[in-house]
Design goal:
Number of strands of chain B: 21
Mean pLDDT of chain B: 89
Distance between the termini of chain B: 28 Å
CATH class of chain A: Mainly Alpha
CATH superfamily of chain A: MetI-like
Number of helices of chain A: 11
Order of helices and strands of chain B: EEEHEEEEHHHEHEHEEHHEEEEEEEEHEE
Order of helices and strands of chain A: HHHHHHHHHHH
Low-confidence stretches of chain B: none
Largest sheet of chain A: none
Number of strands of chain A: 0
Low-confidence stretches of chain A: none
Radius of gyration of chain B: 23 Å
Shape of chain A: globular
CATH topology of chain A: MetI-like fold
Helix content of chain A: over 70%
Distance between the termini of chain A: 43 Å
Oligomer: heterodimer
Mean pLDDT of chain A: 91
């Protein structure tokens, strides 16, 4: 069955996915709102940038992050000045990489949900004395609930499933950066197929369950 | 107590200019064909659309470009009812009603939830979701929700246009009640002349983004110098009191400033005040009273003005019947045969009266 190392990889993965999802929602909600409403060039360029992780190989993202956050990279020098040290091959580094890598999975459902609301509910709220922030919290967010749930679930699931970026920037450090996907890779390398099976099958069941649940949830929301 | 607006909005090829002084009480109807700029003007009044110029409502400045003042919509004390259902789908009727109410300070609340619920007859709906309401019910809830912000100005954008005739009849009486029970200026956008005649006290006619006429309802509808687009609607609106109901002939007598009219009794009762509309095409003229005539409504009047109608061979004649204005559409031939001129006494024979 599962070894203590396997359990530690699972715990680390859940931790990484949870932190990433929370931060992604915090960044993604305002960003997606801006992208959904702005028609400026800056917004279009940002939209393209945010979508890039969908089409790029994870190794490319990992590679550039490694350089940018490395000892001679601009962000690496910044983190050193701030006394944070170097982020590659740490849990914090993995979180930053995961956020960038899963950004489109959070932004796209949010953006779609915000767009679908249209201008009318905002105008109605304004004629009922709600300030823009009040309207956002009490009208926009409740109306965008299906999009919020999809964004959170997809961010979490996608982070659980990442491998290439982790390998590039996280390496393979037990209890720090060795997540499930890396652990499976190690098992296969060592020809421990039984161990690899337990973890892989677990991932299969998890992914299927998440997507099925999301599907059912969205259908119930649509019916309501 | 007035609403003074001078607002201009230019969008692509369309320019809408609202240079208006409206009474600070009663119902003002903005009437005109589609694309005349009715909704645009309403949106500029609300601050949902930013025109250039100034807007003062009952002494308060809502916009003055010269002084760089522009109150955003959420800081204007107004109520707005949109054309289509605009209830928040994530809230039930009660929460929708209280959405605006909760957002105004206690001392500004002049209308209590109970009063608005009663006024619009929506008590049985409070726990329902908007999706479970009929179109008419939704609009009544939307009107009550707007009232609960205790607005100083209520803006209604064709609140009945998305409803079928039966639903309209379901909402119209509530609008009339609102008008008679609350002292709150209302600006009402519509393309239905029937709604105008029934609800409005003041009428603004709009054509191609410009104000074509503005004035008290009866005077404005009976004007002879209206643009051709409105000429077909030329008519008189009279308000009268039911003085008698004849059950044998099923006719009621309606007394107005210039005389009496017999109208179908229907469900009228003595003492009621009702409006009637008399279309110019339903009025014919005679130099003497025709007693051997099947038309029962014959009213003595004085010719005040004559103008050629846009249809060739026809003229519009404006009449004064004891202070009430009437209009008649007759042929040029009749005009010459009767040798009519301003100042002459005639009998207006009214073929049909529409009770509003």
């Amino acid at each position: 069955m599962l070894s203590p190392d396997d359990w530690s990889a699972i715990r680390l993965t859940v931790e990484l996915a949870s932190v990433t999802t929370l931060l992604l929602l915090a960044i993604g909600i305002p960003l997606a709102w801006w992208l959904a409403r702005s028609r400026s060039w800056l917004a279009r360029i940002t939209a393209a940038l945010v979508t890039m992780p969908l089409v790029l190989p994870p190794t490319v993202i990992g590679f550039y992050l490694l350089i940018a956050f490395g000892a001679n990279g601009p962000f690496g020098q910044l983190t050193q000045v701030l006394g944070l040290g170097l982020l590659p091959f740490t849990f914090a580094g993995l979180v930053i990489a995961s956020i960038l890598y899963s950004l489109p999975f959070a932004i796209q459902p949010l953006q779609q949900a915000f767009r679908a609301i249209g201008p009318r509910p905002l105008e109605v709220a304004a004629t009922l004395r709600a300030s823009p922030l009040d309207t956002f919290v009490h009208v926009v967010l409740p109306l965008a609930r299906p999009g919020l749930i999809t964004a959170a679930v997809m961010s979490f699931a996608h982070t659980v499933g990442e491998f290439g970026v982790v390998l590039m920037i996280g390496g393979n450090i037990p209890q720090e950066t060795r997540v499930i996907s890396v652990q499976i890779y190690d098992h296969v390398e060592a020809l421990e197929y039984a161990q690899a099976h337990w973890l892989s099958a677990g991932m299969l069941v998890f992914s299927f369950a998440v997507l099925l649940a999301l599907n059912l949830l969205n259908r119930r929301e649509a019916a309501a | 107590m007035t609403i003074r607006a001078d607002l201009t909005l230019t969008r692509a090829a369309h320019c809408t200019r609202a240079d208006l002084t409206l009474p600070g009480r009663g119902v003002t109807a903005l009437f005109g064909p589609s694309g005349a700029g009715k909704t645009t003007i309403l949106r500029m009044l609300a601050g949902l659309e930013r025109g250039a110029g100034s807007l003062h409502v009952n002494g308060e400045c809502w916009q003055d470009d010269a002084r760089r003042v522009f109150l955003p919509a959420h800081r204007r004390a107004l109520g707005y009812v949109f054309q289509e259902a605009s209830l928040f789908p994530h809230l039930d009727v009660r929460a929708n009603l209280l959405f605006g109410y909760r957002r105004i300070p206690d001392q500004q609340r002049r209308i209590a939830p109970e009063a608005a619920i009663e006024l619009l007859g929506i008590r049985p709906l409070l726990a329902r979701a908007p999706a479970q309401l009929s179109g008419g019910e939704r609009q009544r809830v939307a009107i009550a929700r707007a009232l609960l912000t205790s607005p100083q100005l209520l803006l209604l954008d064709e609140p009945l246009s998305a409803l079928d005739a039966r639903r309209k009849d379901e909402v119209l009486p509530w609008l009339e009640r609102l008008n008679s029970e609350l002292d709150m200026p209302v600006v009402y956008v519509t393309h239905s002349i029937d709604e105008v005649c029934r609800l409005a006290d003041h009428l603004v006619l709009l054509e191609a983004g410009q104000v074509a006429a503005s004035g008290p309802l009866a005077d404005t509808l009976a004007r002879l110098d209206l643009p051709a687009a409105f000429e077909l609607e030329a008519s008189a609106v009279l308000e009268g009191c039911v003085t008698a109901v004849d059950s044998q002939y099923q006719l009621a007598t309606l007394r107005f400033a210039g005389g009496e009219l017999k109208v179908a009794a229907g469900e009228l009762q003595s003492g009621q005040t009702r409006r009637v509309r008399i279309h110019a095409r339903d009025v014919s003229l005679a130099r003497s009273e025709a007693r051997d005539c099947s038309i029962v409504n014959r009213i003595p009047a004085t010719v005040t003005a004559i103008r050629p109608a846009s249809q060739p061979g026809q003229v519009l004649v404006q009449l004064d019947a004891g202070g009430s204005l009437l209009l008649a559409r007759i042929t040029r031939l009749s005009l010459d045969i009767l040798q009519l001129a301003a100042g002459q006494q005639v009998w207006a024979q009214i073929k049909s009266v529409a009770l509003l």
